[in-house]
TrEMBL record:
Alphabetical UniProt keywords: Coiled coil, Metal-binding, Zinc, Zinc-finger
Domain C2H2-type: 159-187
Top-level division of the source organism's lineage: Eukaryota
Recorded GO CC terms: cytoplasm
Protein's organism: Aphanomyces astaci
The protein's name: C2H2-type domain-containing protein
Length: 263
């Protein structure tokens, strides 16, 4: 240990404390050799004690500040941990929803492929068309539970009349309209649809038009379901990105906490 530099103690201004100079003096004051014979001046000894008190006071304030910062970081770490658990739960739910959505899409795709066969088997009856449209509407209502879109933006399947093209909100309204406005035409179309073999091409025109309209409707429905699947995939990707960000923040907070504990 070196002898105490009393000139440095003498030069330190107690009326205008220089914190930077005080920090530079800490190693000298800590490792200097202070003996009874060296403390010849009571004034300098008292001043040295006062300087040491200032150093200790500075350390206490730094300790308080570090304790407060550690407390804030701990609270932030707890909040981030809770948010991470919430994101994990949402991510798990999103994966489950996507899995169910894919299964529903597979079932609806099978339904779309079999609709043409059903129409041919039933002779393209307007009642059959209404039944198929009802099945599609039911499928859409089930799909709404797997998609985050609102009712205002959710596309709705209209019940179209195959004879005049009018749209109806429910199947009941469509059937009443057909019975009231197109009763004779409906019977004629069913009769033509059940004829096999020697009919002319003109007799098959109504059936072809009806089938074309319904196939277009089914194609639109399939596009909507694929879009819903893509939206769910985007939502899942966004949740994964948010979870990655939260993990990075949690790691930074852990490093900051470790640094404070080391200090």
């Amino acid at each position: 240990m070196l002898d105490m530099d009393w000139r440095l103690v003498e030069a330190f201004n107690m009326n205008d404390i220089d914190t930077a100079l005080l920090q530079e003096m800490v190693p000298t004051l800590t490792y200097a050799l202070v003996t009874e014979t060296a403390c010849t001046s009571p004034r300098l000894s008292c001043k040295l004690i006062r300087i040491l008190q200032l150093v200790v006071e500075t350390f206490i304030e730094c300790r308080k500040g570090d304790a407060y910062d550690a407390h804030v970081l701990q609270e932030d770490l707890i909040a981030v941990s809770n948010e991470r658990d919430s994101f994990r739960l949402r991510l798990k739910e999103a994966k489950t929803d996507v899995k169910a959505l894919k299964a529903q899409l597979a079932r609806c795709t099978t339904l779309l492929k079999s609709c043409s066969q059903v129409l041919h088997a039933q002779g393209c009856s307007p009642h059959t068309i209404a039944a198929v449209e009802s099945m599609l509407a039911t499928s859409d209502s089930m799909m709404s539970t797997f998609t985050p879109t609102t009712d205002a933006t959710m596309p709705k399947v209209a019940h179209l009349c195959a004879f005049c093209g009018k749209a109806f909100g429910t199947q009941d309204y469509l059937l009443k309209h057909i019975d009231r406005r197109h009763a004779s035409t409906s019977d004629g179309v069913v009769g033509k649809g059940t004829i096999q073999g020697g009919g002319s091409s003109n007799n098959q025109t109504p059936n072809i038009d009806i089938l074309t309209k319904l196939e277009l409707l089914l194609a639109q429905h399939e596009v909507h379901m694929k879009k819903a699947t893509a939206d769910s995939a985007d939502t899942l990707q966004a949740l994964q990105n948010e979870l990655a960000i939260e993990r990075a923040v949690a790691n930074e907070l852990k490093l900051a906490r470790s640094d404070l504990q080391w200090r």
